Amino acid sequence: MAAPRNIVIFTILALIITGLASLGPAQTTHTFCPQFRYDAHHTGYSEQVGPSELNLAMELDIPPVGGFIEGFFATPSFDKNGNLYAGSMDNYFYSVSPLGSLRWSYQTTGIVGTGGSPLITSNERLIFGNDNGKLYCLDLDGGFIWSYSTTGGDAAAIFNGPSSSFDGNVYFGDNAGVLYSLRESDGSVNWSIQLTAESIYTSSVTIDGDMLYVGATDGYLYAISKAGVPTWSYNAGGEIHATPVLTDDGDLLFGSTNGSFTCVDRQGLLQWSDTFEGPVTASAAYAGEDSVVVGDENAAIRKYRTDGSLVWSGALVGAIKASPVIDSDGKIYVYSEPGNIYIMGSDGYVLDWTTRDGYWKAGSSPVIGPDGTLYICTGKDMSQVLGFRAPGSGLPSIDGFAEDADVTIGESLKYSVSFSNPSRRLTVDFYVAVAFGNSLLFYPNWTTDWNYTRLTLDAGASGTVTLVDIPIADGSLAADYTFYAAPMVPNTLINFTNTSVANVTVH
Q1: Are 408 and 451 a contacting pair, CB within 8 Å?
Q2: Are strands 367-368 and 332-336 parallel, antiparallel or unpaired?
Q3: CA angle, corner 351, sides to 6 and 483, nearest 5?
Q4: What is the DSSP letter of 33?
Q5: Closest to 163 (Cα-Cα) out of 23, 37, 27
Q6: N or C terminus: fewer CB in 10 A for the chain?
Q7: Regarding the domain with residue range 393-506, which homologous superfamily does it belong to in the CATH classification?
């Protein structure tokens, strides 16, 4: 008998998604992840190796505390011990340990949105903003040090994560178009300038030596000296929500709501541009001259060289509003609406993906912690922190068998699998196809549609589970049966083991 079509499809898919090309790292220097997008150049490049599979190793639910919108829009930062810090839409700022426990929370005066992507200073202070136009400075244990209020209050909300080149100063913009430079030590003002009549929205300040670069909703990218003197501006033609990324050659990469993705040099001169069908509001990720990755709100994703030539293009599912991240192996991590998480190889193939049902607004960008854990902060009915780590050695083994190859009336037709899971807690969907006569149906619903039985295998667990159990009450089910089982990781195209086959005769 020919192999059932579903088994053939599984095998083909498994072959398609394998393979990973290595990629050299960017030349910019940065530590674990002390600010939005890792460093003052906002590259979105991690020096760590992230996971190749979405092995959920940590899940922390933070119950609602009364905010009218729950969940994270802020992207987390990390201290040297791997502790995570991020603000939430429930008005609180949180610290989470690498093991997934809540270390502490700090209540602010309002929603801590995208401005809650914190800066961790060289003397271990946390600085972040909220939607009430207030900038906070805490110690790493959640103790208050100082705060600063923008002159416009609520109308001058802080939607961008503060930036620093660790020279003792912090830079950020507000919703009223004012750019600020404050001293990290006490929050006193070095200077502030009215850069635009519109908003410095979610674009964080990018720092290059003595120069600052930031985008605004008036469509301009601005260059300002560290002394607070505007130098030049570039009109992108649409609102700039993305944070500009500085390459090793000194070029700036940024997107716009008109679908343009633009590269200008340090003088503001256009080097190249390309156009997407949807708004480009997420920041690009940069990991060297062959690797500039960016997506749009129509779910398109592209990889460029720094000269503007296209390496590959593709499409995922869901608007890409959160900025992608690249690890030191060249793997790409994308979080799209409404809760889709992807791991892509540097060649553009999807290595693994999953979706968090019931979650929306993928505004918090994925980030890789100091130990290589991939973190996703999400939420709808509550704030949630997810951690994905590389699995331990060894894949689960699955072996299917018929408990009785000859079944008579009064007995049961049973098909079982024995399993051994040496590495990680894993949820598995078992697709069981039953062939008899000229029919191929999927158990347990006995239809031509794909059905599955879902099991969760704990790390280190082994045992046996029966997938098919049909009492034979009369001779109507007399036939020769062939069972095929293909275990897969839910919501992915990953088939991690060989197909199990067993034959049973009912008479």
Answers
A1: no
A2: unpaired
A3: 20
A4: B
A5: 37
A6: N
A7: Immunoglobulins (2.60.40.10)
**pTM across the whole model:** 0.72
Does the pLDDT value for residue 241 go beyond 50?
yes
Q: Is 105 helix (H, G, I), strand (E, B) or coil?
A: strand
Distance CA 496, CA 431 (A): 13
Phi, psi torsion values for 196, nearest 5 degrees: -155, 160
DSSP state of 7: H
The predicted-structure confidence for 69-86, as pLDDT tens digits, reads as follows 678 888 999 987 789 999
pLDDT (tens digit per residue) in 88-126: 888 899 999 887 889 999 999 888 888 889 999 988 899
| C-beta of residue 335 within 8 angstroms of C-beta of residue 321 | no
How many CB atoms neighbour CB 164 within 10 A?
22
CA distance 494 to 121: 41
Domain boundaries, the chain: 56-388, 393-506
First-to-final CA distance of the chain: 21
User: What DSSP designation does 8 have?
Assistant: H
CATH architecture for segment(s) 56-388: 7 Propeller (2.130)
Tokens 């600085």: give the residue: 127
Asked if residues 441 and 451 have their Cβ atoms less than 8 Å apart, the reply is no
Note whether 371 and 48 are within 8 A (CB).
Answer: yes
Residue length of the chain? 507
Residue 11: beta bridge partners?
Answer: none
Q: Residue 26: what residue type?
A: A
**What is residue 64's predicted lDDT score, i.e. its pLDDT?**
67
Q: What contacts 209, CB < 8 A, 6 or more positions away?
A: none
Across 116-120, 434-438, 452-456, the highest mean pLDDT is recorded for: 116-120
Letter string b/e over residues 390-399, b meaning 16 or more CB atoms within 10 A of that residue's CB: bbeeebbebe
Q: Check: CB of residue 99 under 8 Å from CB of residue 84.
A: no
Residue bearing tokens 């098909």 = 415
> 378 to each of 59, 297, 322, how far by Cα in Å?
11, 18, 11
Tokens of residue 501, six digits: 């086959």
Least trusted range by pLDDT, from 173-177, 323-327, 458-462: 458-462
| Residues pairing with 20 in the sheet | none
Omega before residue 338 within 30° of 0, cis: yes
Say if residues 36 and 75 touch (Cβ distance below 8 Å): yes
**Interior/surface letters 438-451, b for 16+ CB within 10 angstroms, e for the rest:** eebebbeeeeeeeb
